[in-house]
Amino acid sequence: MRKPSRGRPRSFDEDAVLDAVMRAFWEHGYEGTSVATLEAATGLKAPSLYGAFGSKEVLYQTALERYASEHGNVLRPDGPAREAISEFLYEAADQFSESGLPPGCMVSTAALALGASQRGVADRPARMRSETLGGIEQRLRTAVTEGELPDETDVGALARLFGAVIQGMSVQAIDGATRQELRGLAAVAMDAWPPRGGAGR
Q: Any idea where the HTH tetR-type domain is (predicted)?
């Protein structure tokens, strides 16, 4: 986020404005959030908003980091991997359908439909999704090493399955899926966990 400019103190609550910006991008996506949408959400005119925080792209990146900090789902690094990943999926289902918040995941869906000219905007959420996928894969590799998963488990494919389920739950939440329905998806996804004595391919 840009450092505040020197001069007259701001006449608005910066945290409240950034929360409003985050919710606008979360609910409408990057392209769907117009200048008018941001003005209506924050109560500020575009010159004041952009003068304080930067361009729309900078605002989006700031909102994305705020979302990750306040609403991001974290994969537990300790305990059995199956238990940790199951919790991760169920927590995502609950978060994506939480009352009072926009449905779905801002990281999963807010910038998926951008054209080539806006790849800079999409790069950060893509990296965040990649980091999540990498964390799941590393957890699975450790599970193989520790004997929780069979040696022949295709950990890359299994990690991508769980990642796809998370993104799919986000889309379905936006389309109106209930918490119970999303939790059902999480349960079915965990059925793909290879048994210790079976093949993982």
A: 11-71
User: How many Å is the Cα radius of gyration of the chain?
Assistant: 19
pTM of the model: 0.86
The predicted-structure confidence for 57-86, as pLDDT tens digits, reads as follows 999 999 999 999 999 889 999 999 999 999
Yes or no: say if 59 and 38 are a contact pair by the CB < 8 Å rule.
yes
**Res 123: pLDDT:** 87
CATH number 1.10.357.10 is the correct assignment for the domain at 73-192: yes
Nearest to 197 by CA among 132, 148, 143, 140: 148
The CATH homologous superfamily of the domain defined by 14-67: Homeodomain-like (1.10.10.60)
Range(s) within the chain of domains with CATH label 1.10.357.10: 73-192
